[in-house]
Amino acid sequence: MLSAEAAPDVPPSGADLAWYVDDLKRNGIRRVHVLAWRDLDDVDAGGSEVHADELMSRWAANGLDVLHRTSAAVGLPATDTRNGYAVVRRGSRYSVFPRTIASELTRRMGRSDALVEIWNGVPWFSPVWCRKPHITVLHHVHGPMWDQILPGPLAAFGRALESRIAPPFYRRTLTITPSDATRQELLELGFRTDRVRAFPNGVDSFFSPGGVKTASPSILAVGRLAPVKRFELVIDAAIEARGRVPGLTATIIGEGPLRGDLQQRIDAAGASGWIHIRGRIDRHELVAEYRRAWLVVSGSLAEGWGLSLTEGAACGTPAVATDIRGHRSSVVAGVTGLLVEPPLLGPTIADVLTDDRRREQLAAAALARARTLTWDASALGITSCLHAEVIRSRERGTRRLGAGRRSRE
């Protein structure tokens, strides 16, 4: 058996991202195509798009030629560059799938040496048509989200596509997810234990503690104002908590189709003087909001990872959130925050806001844990998986070649 020095494909102890990228290039992987429904500049971008950008920008910085294929977006050019990688936006939210697959098969956008599929609800079915090394990134199973995204019959089809139709095609594909909770959910759908890996999302070092908290108790909720995020629960919980916490204020950061409805809910409750929707803000303002808030709150129905909760933690702000799979990975329940059923959001917010000692303990633990979550580690894990698939593909090819020679002999 060859030693690690004699066989550069064997990762040495402590191999870093640069080593993996260099070995990918030694094995002929120089251009990687990444397929995703949306990209980071899309108005609907969320945690999945942040994750993709953090990965692709690191690959580009280490010398890989990366092309990000995604759907068209209003106000954005069809071709673009970001953080060292190319972006192609073509096709609608739905036509992007067949259009991109056809383009990949005909090499209309050039040849790629490896492929990354980001499966966000609707799969690209890359295991069916891609014969080069490939991996899949799946942030979460949509499950109950389908009823919020599509009308009845289409929602049922979406659930069936995600849970029954597509999984058999992916069970041999190496699939990466950001949380152990989602990994377990995929195993329940029949994915193979040895073919699903979990690497936690990182937290940008830009998010850090500083400044001072608001003089009066305050909560913050961040995310796209869409049905699945259930900001109405946050509003109702804040109103309930204020009965026990005089002077409580709440701030909602984000844009989306429900902004008008949420504002009407606030106005109808007579809470417009202390619950504010700020819309989209830049990251400097966002950090300031995280630092000022006493708690970060989420009422989401489903998440692959609660990115706003770990960003808040990195700024020294603990969380109170709904007890869902994705939140169980981003919050260590009872240690860095509290996870509860929706009816208990309001009472739990009030409990934590009125218990200074407990809140300080949660904040300290949240900050300590956030410092262990890095995008470098996440990118390294995913790159090691792509590398493993490249070596696996090469070894399969060698075995087939050997079998062919023996049969001719």
Structure description:
The structure is a single chain. By secondary structure, the chain is α/β, with parallel strands linked by helices. The protein has two domains: 17-202 and 375-408, Glycogen Phosphorylase B (Rossmann fold); 218-370, Glycogen Phosphorylase B (Rossmann fold, 3-Layer(aba) Sandwich). It is 43% helix and 16% strand. The chain is globular and about 70 Å long. 43% of the residues are buried.
Quick structural overview:
This protein has 2 domains: 220 residues, Glycogen Phosphorylase B (Rossmann fold); 153 residues, Glycogen Phosphorylase B (Rossmann fold), CATH 3.40.50.2000. 43% of the residues lie in helices and 16% in strands. An 8-stranded mixed β-sheet has the order 3-4-2-1-5-6-7-8. The chain has a 6-stranded parallel β-sheet with strand order 11-10-9-12-13-14, with helices on both faces.
Give the helices and strands, then pairings:
Elements: H1 17-26, E1 31-35, H2 47-61, E2 65-70, E3 79-82, E4 85-89, H3 96-106, E5 114-119, H4 126-129, E6 134-138, H5 146-149, H6 152-165, H7 167-170, E7 175-177, H8 180-188, E8 196-198, E9 218-222, H9 231-242, E10 249-253, H10 259-268, E11 275-279, H11 283-292, E12 295-298, H12 307-314, E13 319-322, H13 325-330, E14 337-340, H14 345-353, H15 356-370, H16 375-408
Parallel strand pairs: 1-2, 1-5, 2-4, 5-6, 6-7, 7-8, 9-10, 9-12, 10-11, 12-13, 13-14
Antiparallel strand pairs: 3-4
Helix pairs in contact: 1-16, 2-16, 9-14, 12-15
